[in-house]
């Protein structure tokens, strides 16, 4: 087993990690098959559809750079609440002294609400941010196809749906692209640009540039479940949950992740976001999903027990009224131990190192698969995605950077050990095996 120390980072390694982040941020703008002098489509007016959490934040990001936005919603209440949230967010920024009230008024004047879909007709770009439902999004894109002007870019903020299936219902799949913003969209620095099979080069170049002008880092991904960010995140959370089923308690997993450098552990994050996020979808998938592998369903059971997280005062932790501090809860810990026994998993002590290793190596292995399938252009694109969108500790440089630092031979040896012990999910990525055979590292793939 590798004796790599995940928890202390020397000043030299820290400085290298910081330098890597800077190089990665610059490199992400470079797309090998799209020339940097590709003429961009002018973006002078944008329509954002869906005035919810994401739509409001996206509208603010655009207004902040002086672009007029029409914020559309199907429901009057949805629109009213969305506009109110935008106003409140700006008011907080003014209160903190980071914006003057006249700047706030100027930005607010750029965001105009509407319930009339026909308002999209003058938009140079439409960014759709309605509920994550393929049928709903396809219906909307059919409408957009009929209403938008010919050169308009039609973007979807889907977190993981197949952009090609959305593009396919339009007569202009070359104009359809994924624009995956992160929450809160007016704050988070990452924009994942998702390239469909037919997305035109100038559409990609225009969206990448728009992200940059918004002060964000634009990273290009191809279509894959969860694109780059959520694909790795799925592996990270799955291992965290398996660790809990295998013997660690949520507070132990979270403590190890915090010691590694995360601001919050994953279970505290779940409790904050709500354990019921994605509950219906996951429940619906249970009947048809493959039975040859292990699934982590404990979170669904927690929801069935009413442990939705902070909002119900209990989740993976318990919370005192009016306080967000997570406290260990003997009730949930007993429940977890009983579930492990019921599933036949003998519980054993997990070291901090083993905890970080399983969460991190799950990401690295998936990252290698993304590179092999050309979902991500280069390893540093994965790192910058993680540093700017997923709270990966800056001084650790990103998962792929860490893999090189640890040594790919050591990482692969551990992944093979985990594969032998746990099976399916740890199938080593062929690219990782190849790099080890050839004595190369991820950084050798940078271009
Ligand atoms: N919330 C996140 O953290 C997050 C992060 C990244 C991406 N996303 C994605 O962004 C999209 C929106 O998510 P959200 O969290 O902002 O949702 P939300 O529930 O907060 O808001 C969705 C809004 O869309 C409106 N709407 C629904 N159908 C509509 C239609 N046909 N026409 C116009 N408006 C319609 C609703 O009234 C609502 O106001 C989803 O695809 C989601 O997966 C969400």
Q: Which range best describes the helical content: under 10%, 10-25%, 25-40%, 40-55%, 55-70% or over 70%?
A: 40-55%
Q: Profile the largest sheet.
A: 8 strands, mixed
Q: Measure the end-to-end span.
A: 32 Å
Run of helices and strands:
HEHEHHEEHEHEEHEHHHHHHHHHHH
The whole-number mean of residue pLDDT values reads: 97
Low-confidence stretches: none
Ligand inventory reads: nicotinamide-adenine-dinucleotide
Provide the CATH topology of the domain at 46-222: Rossmann fold
CATH class of the domain at 46-222: Alpha Beta
Oligomer: single chain
Fourth CATH level, the homologous superfamily of the domain at 46-222 = NAD(P)-binding Rossmann-like Domain
What order do the strands of the largest sheet run in, or round the barrel if closed? 3-2-1-4-5-6-7-8
Helical segment tally? 18
The amount of beta strand, in percent, is 5-15%
- Sum up the overall morphology in one term: globular
Description:
The protein is an alpha/beta fold and 447 residues long. The protein has a domain at 46-222: Rossmann fold. The protein is 49% helix and 9% strand. It has 18 helices and eight strands. The protein has helices spanning 11-27, 53-64, 76-95, 101-110, 134-147, 163-167, 201-213, 229-246, 250-260, 266-273, 279-286, 298-304, 330-343, 352-372, 379-389, 399-406, 408-422, 430-437, and strands at residues 46-49, 69-72, 111-114, 125-128, 153-156, 176-181, 190-195, 217-222. The protein has an eight-stranded mixed sheet, sandwiched between helices. Strand 4 (125-128), helix 5 and strand 5 (153-156) form a beta-alpha-beta unit. Helix 1 (11-27) packs across helix 15 (379-389) and helix 14 (352-372) packs across helix 17. The longest helix has 21 residues, at 352-372. The two termini are 32 Å apart. The structure holds nicotinamide-adenine-dinucleotide. The site of nicotinamide-adenine-dinucleotide has 25 residues, from helix 2, helix 3 and helix 5.
